[in-house]
Specification:
Elements lengths: L5 H8 L13 H6 L6 H4 L4 H17 L18 E5 L5 E6 L9 H11 L7
Antiparallel strand pairs: 1-2
Length: about 120
Amino acid sequence: MFHSQADDVRPHTADLPFAVIADPDKRLYLEFGVESSPRALIDPRAWPSILRGVLHSSVSIVRDRRPVPSLTPHGGRFGLPADFLIARDGRVLACKYGTHADDHWSVDEVVALAREAAPQGHAE
């Protein structure tokens, strides 16, 4: 789940081997107990990813003439990440509540968790 509009998330998630949910109004965030906090951005462990994002955006703005990102994005800037592995039947198989902006599962971790949770011989 991302607290962004679907059109904003789609370009970044199109190649992922699992579904991603846009939740711009944070309805699911509320139901799942996902929090917002300034620590999402002030934790030093998040700074390398923030710097990479700023550099990537800057290059896109200059080279590709992309629009400057909003200073007040829909959903706010302080959303903490939370990752959920949800089975096709709606059961939550695993979850991780992040403590800073870059504290989330890697794609490899999600795939490994899905393999562990899948019945023998079946992929979820």
